[in-house]
User: Which sequence fits this backbone?
């Protein structure tokens, strides 16, 4: 065999060996059943009208507007079944909003509120064993709101109230493999919940809490 032929055989063997090692590594990573994720996100809840009481003289905007607060999510997932096309995971997203500002012309409305959502559900990944894996999620659970004892103008003292509510969760996202057992996750979820008690009669009884952001996922 010529030197070129020998070199070709050696290179072919090395390529096959590297491909085999990479496949084994990918298999060992994607066969792991558990994952823990941590994400930093923002909330995009929509404002709504106040139906009672009427505004004091001089005020014209009888609404509650909700700021864009930071949210923090921890998420545990357990893979149930995986094929080359689909991956099914039971997940428990826990989202905490520590300071959601409120704006209103009515000082009976509290200055802000805290919120916690816990919504176990199912996530379905498309092409779960590849570098890029889009997914959809659906679930349901509980939400809890705690309002401030200060009015929006920090003049009145209002009763801080706690409210618990049922929550439906819908989400979409993308998982990107970074290195070995680490992935990056970008996502948007809607936590459809009841409304916090804002000391006024509100124009709705449920609200959309759109929360989006990104973070890392560790598989083990």
Assistant:
């Amino acid at each position: 065999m010529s030197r070129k032929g020998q070199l070709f055989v050696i290179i072919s063997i090395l390529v096959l060996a590297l491909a085999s090692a990479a496949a084994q590594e990918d298999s060992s990573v994607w066969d792991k059943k558990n994952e823990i994720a941590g994400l930093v996100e923002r909330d995009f809840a929509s404002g709504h009208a106040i139906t009672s009481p009427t505004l004091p003289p001089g005020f014209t905007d009888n609404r509650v507007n909700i700021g864009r607060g930071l949210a923090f999510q921890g998420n545990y997932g357990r893979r149930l079944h995986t094929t080359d096309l689909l991956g099914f995971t039971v997940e428990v997203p826990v989202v905490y909003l520590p300071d959601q500002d409120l704006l209103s012309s009515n000082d009976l409305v509290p200055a802000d509120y805290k919120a916690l959502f816990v919504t176990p559900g199912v996530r379905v990944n498309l092409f779960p064993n590849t570098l890029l894996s889009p997914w959809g999620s659906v679930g349901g659970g509980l939400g809890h709101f705690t309002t401030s004892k200060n009015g929006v103008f920090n003049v009145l003292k209002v009763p801080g109230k706690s409210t618990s509510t049922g929550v439906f969760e819908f989400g979409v996202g993308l998982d990107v493999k970074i290195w070995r057992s680490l992935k990056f996750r970008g996502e948007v979820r809607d936590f459809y919940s009841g409304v916090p008690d804002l000391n006024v009669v509100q124009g709705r009884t449920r609200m959309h809490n759109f929360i989006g952001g990104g973070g890392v996922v560790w598989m083990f």
Remarks:
- Residues 3-30 form the longest helix (28 residues).
